[in-house]
Write a structure and sequence with these properties.
The structure holds 2 protein chains of 2 kinds. Chain A has 3 helices and no strands. By secondary structure, chain A is mostly helical. In chain A, α2 runs antiparallel to α3. Chain B is mainly alpha-helical. Chain B has one domain. In chain B, α3 crosses α5, α7 packs antiparallel against α8 and α7 runs parallel beside α9. The longest helix of chain B has about 40 residues. Chain B is globular. Classes of the chains: A mainly alpha, B mainly alpha. The interface between A and B is medium-sized, with 26 and 25 residues.
Chain lengths: ~70, ~280
């Protein structure tokens, strides 16, 4: 068994932040796409929702198994 | 402090706070929040602090003693060893850039955060004597600083991802990452969101903590500043002193922790870029 690295565990410091920032980044990417394609607000809402799902997923994965990341 | 508060604010608490949260801005986009606006105070103060690090580093190296190191050299060496330890703990690969980068980030962010501990009115007051009406002394309370640093880390992450995994390997991460090979479009979007979230959380965390800390300092300063309305309000002055000292001591912890987190997450993100299995 290799020595466990501390680093990934330290990601847990910002776990709440990760959830918030995935939602924000989803909205931002959606906003960019909408701006480009002229489809406001479809992608913003869709990617915001995806960001929320992704954030939840990521936080769950991080909390249940920090070694993964 | 309270007198300065009253002078620079024109008496109103809202103006006082807004005045302290306005950068010294030059450029065509200042009023509209446009792209072409330069926050001179942020740039100058962060550059000065960077120069201070370089100068101190040069001085320590020049006067280095190999047998019995002096107090300051010991201090610098302990910071170096601390950062080196963090890099060894968290970084899986071999890269000569990481430790110096981590050290620079830690010391520079710490120093920029440290500007928060200087009394909130002191530097704007001194700047006011020279005709500079706006001065935001803490560079990390400017979103431009923290996001620029986070963006630099982000670009480095992409660079090392492509260098270590190859362009194909990096793109493969986008295609098959969270949901496997049957949901490629969703995977691309999700991975893109996750990747963008990394620098965003890095920058916003530091900015949020420092901005909030600065705001609390201002609110505490306003307790004594209320004396500008009537001398009877000086009754709050002892409370201001107690609160200020308490928040100051607590804030030393906060600034160190934030600098540490920024450094460690940089190492972790770059470390993730260096691992081929995901």
């Amino acid at each position: 068994m290799t020595k466990r690295k501390k680093g990934p565990g330290l990601l847990l410091i910002g776990v709440g932040n990760i959830l918030a920032s995935t939602i924000i980044s989803g909205f931002l990417l959606g906003f960019g796409l909408d701006y480009w394609l002229g489809t406001t607000p479809i992608f913003m809402i869709a990617l915001g929702a995806l960001g929320f799902v992704g954030g939840m997923l990521k936080v769950y994965k991080l909390l249940s198994n920090p070694d993964l990341y | 402090m309270s007198e300065a508060a009253a002078n620079s604010s024109g008496g109103g608490t809202v103006e006082y706070i807004q005045h302290h949260l306005t950068n010294l801005c030059v450029g065509s986009g200042c009023e509209t929040g446009g792209f072409m606006s330069w926050h001179i105070d942020t740039i100058v103060i962060s550059a000065l602090l960077g120069a201070l690090i370089v100068f101190t580093g040069m001085r320590v190296t020049r006067n280095m003693a190999t047998d019995v190191p002096g107090g300051f050299q010991n201090f610098v060496e302990s910071i170096l060893e601390f950062v080196q330890g963090s890099v060894k703990d968290s970084f899986p690969g071999e890269n000569k850039l990481i430790a110096p980068l981590a050290l620079t980030i830690f010391v520079w962010v710490w120093l920029m955060n440290f500007m928060d501990l200087i009394p909130v009115d002191l530097l704007p007051l001194i700047a006011g004597w020279f005709g500079i009406h706006y001065l935001k002394a803490v560079p990390t309370t400017d979103l431009n600083t923290t996001l620029a640093m986070a963006l630099t880390v982000f670009i480095l992450t992409i660079f090392y991802n492509i260098k270590v995994k190859g362009l194909g390997g990096y793109l493969k991460m986008f295609l098959f990452h969270p949901f496997g090979k049957f949901a490629v479009p969703a995977n691309i979007v999700m991975t893109a969101i996750e990747e963008v979230a990394k620098p965003l959380s890095l920058g916003l965390r530091l900015f949020g903590n420092m901005f909030a800390g600065e705001l609390v300092f201002m609110l505490i300063a306003l307790l004594g500043g209320a004396a500008a309305i009537g001398a009877g309000l000086l009754i709050w002055f002892p409370l201001q002193v107690v609160l200020d000292v308490a928040w100051l001591i607590f804030h030393i912890l906060v600034i160190t922790l934030q600098a540490f987190i920024f450094m460690v997450l940089t190492i972790v993100y770059l470390g993730m870029a260096h691992t081929t299995d995901h």
